[in-house]
Known about the structure:
The protein is α/β, with parallel strands linked by helices.
Amino acid sequence: MTTIAPRPLDVVVVAGDRHGSRTVRGVGKPFLPLAGVPVLHHVLAAVEEAHATARIFVVGDQARIERSLAASGSPVRGLRRINVVEQGTTLYENAWFGFRAALGPDAPPSSESEDLTPEVRDKPILYVAGDAPLVTAAEIDEMVAGSDLARFDYCLGVTSEATLTAFYPRDGQAGIRMTYWEIRDLSWRQANLNLVRPFRFGGRHSMNRLYEIRHQRDWRNAMKFCLWLWRNHHVSGRTVTAFASLQVARVARRLELLRSPLIRPLLLDYAKMADVVSAGMQTRFTMVETHYGGAALDVDDADAYDAITANFDVWRAYLARLAAERGAAPLASAAS
C-alpha cells in the first residue's frame, strides 16, 4: 500500500549548465527554444500546476533564468512563486543549493553536517530535471502519490517501455526510441523525477560520478562504473551478480533474446535490484512507476530535441487526454 505525502512537497528544478551538463547545438538544454519559449518554462509550468507542489526552487544561471521568466509569452502562469537559486559547478552542488534554499534558516552550514534536527534530517524534496518539457502536473502528482515515504527515503520515478512506445517513430514521423534497463519484471527508463530525503541518502556524494557515466549503453561507461564500484568498496558477490545481470540483459535485448528461457532466469527481479541499490547507495530505495511518459522524454541530444520539437503539440495533447481520462484535475487558482 502506498502512502500519499501528508502535505505538498518543495520541488527543486535542476537547470544548471556547468560541469557534467550537455549542450545541444551549443545551447544549454533547459534554454533551448521550444514552442516560442525555453524548454525550462514548460517544466516550470507543469511543476506549478501540480497539486503535490508546495514551493518551487529552480537552480541554474540565476540572471539568465530571471530575465527569461520576465519575458512575455511564457506558459508559466504564476500559480506559485518561483525562487531562483544561483547554480554551483556540479550536479551535487546544484542539488544541495536547491535543498538548502528550501530549508531556509534551518539549513545546516554544509551538506556534510551531522548535527541535524529531525525536521531537517527527514525533510523530503522532489527533484525534477529542467530539460524534460513534456513532464505534466498529472505525472508529478502520480509520482508523489505513489511514493511511500513511510518505508523509503529515495523514490526513483521510472516509466515502462509499454508506456513509452506511444512516442516511438511511426508512419514516417520522427519519434524517440529509448534505451532501457531490463529486469525480470519490467523494461524501464528513469523518468527524471527523484523524491529524496537528502540527509537519509548516504550515497549522495556519488551523484556527480554516477551522472557522468549514466549512459550504460556505452561500454566505456560500463567499465567506469565497475571501477567506481571497486574504488568505493561496493563490490560484493551480490553487487557483481546484479551488475552482470543488467549487462547480460542489455546484450540480450540487442540480440532479441530477452524472452529466451535461457536468459530469463539470469535477469534480476525487482526486489533483489532494490536491495542491491539500497545497500550500495546507503538509503532505503524503491522505484515508482509513472504511466504518462512525458518526464522520461528529456532533451538528451539533438535527435531527441528535433523529435520533441516536431511532435510537441501532438504529444502534449496526448498527455492531456491521458490526464483527463484518469481524472487528474489541473490547479486553477494562483497561490502564494
